Amino acid sequence: MESTLQQHKQVKHSVTRVVQLSDCHLGADQDFMLAGINTFHSFKQSLSEIEGSQKTPSLIAVTGDIASVGNQRTYQLFSSAMLSSQLPYAWLPGNHDDFSLMKASALQPFTRFVELGGWVAIFLVSAVPGEVYGEISDTELTELDDLLKQYGDRNIVLFVHHPPAPINCKWLDQQRITNSEQFGDLVARHKNVRALFSGHVHQENESIWQGLPVYSVPSTCFQFASGSDTFELSDLPPGYRWIDLYPDGRIETGVERLNYDMGKMDRSCLGY
Q1: 155-to-2, 27, 246 alpha-carbon distances in Å
Q2: Average pLDDT of span 138-160
């Protein structure tokens, strides 16, 4: 039986909507709490709002740190929630995920790319096992180069966990993609790449990197304070990013925030 994602791969619309979710930090059960937030509850509320929106997305891009700690039960919980939503989706791992375990236990296989009419969304792995920082391996770079050549006549959007560019948070900027110059040189050779969307930083940000628009997204649970030198939480609620892809290569994007009570957030949390 075809997966929901496979059924939607060839769907064409005048404007294609993609929604980005990231940094869910789910636990092994629905009662798991992190920094005072029930991460499954906020994740489910995000899905419910997307389901109830006027414009149904052609794809949900989940950009890593799906788990707080890689665990088979966590990935089964994530898979069950996504299946219940009936939203087509693709995912990639973050530094908190166990990529091998997720590939073995998630219902939806890891998908390198998704065709969306005149667009192609490419999913890159920046997570390095046992490390917090990001890196795009030589194997990833080679596969990306091949795909960009293969889809030279399509508009491309890239999804990755770690950002390649600084976001003006000293502690988080130390964790960005370490070989971003090499990565950027490759991307710059392909003029059909329109934007890059990352997770990891638990906040909304946009910048220009190698002439390319780069966007980050709020977490579906708690947020990090923008402009901070050290770890600091923000009072802002969970959110997600919508991305509208136009046939002529234009992109419109913005962030939606949940109506979510952050009053129980644990500010004494010194890390995550």
Answers
A1: 26, 36, 9
A2: 97
